[in-house]
Amino acid sequence: MEDQKKMGQINIELSDEIAEGIYSNLAIITHSQSEFIVDFVKMMPGVPKAKVKSRIILTPQHAKRLYRALKDNITKYESVHGTIKEPVGDAMPPFALGGPSAQA
Asked: What's the pTM?
């Protein structure tokens, strides 16, 4: 039984640099038939230019697992801390990136 537990475990390393994280207040999502691309952007008030701070490329299957995990964690968060309030109106800047996209 102990060997079965060890086989199902993954040893994940987290370097100090990655553990610090990167702040993002905008995600731009595009996709093709074979992948989802999520660009995490940091926008600053009054600055007309924003930088992509990180890009994650996912398979469609992994994107769906991520969606389910986020949904589950948001539900758990809101059950403890209350409903997350979203800004009223269109607070997102317009983007024209050429291709199917969504913003989160």
From this structure: 0.72
| Distance between CA atoms of residues 49 and 53, nearest Å | 13
Query: Which amino acid, one-letter code, is at 48?
Result: P
User: Residues 41, 25: contact at Cβ < 8 Å?
Assistant: yes
- Domain that residue 47 falls in: 20-82
Assigned domain for 87 exists: no
> Is pLDDT at 53 greater than 50 in this prediction?
yes
Given the DSSP bridges, would you call strands 36-42 and 101-103 parallel, antiparallel or unpaired? unpaired
Q: How many domains does the chain have?
A: 1
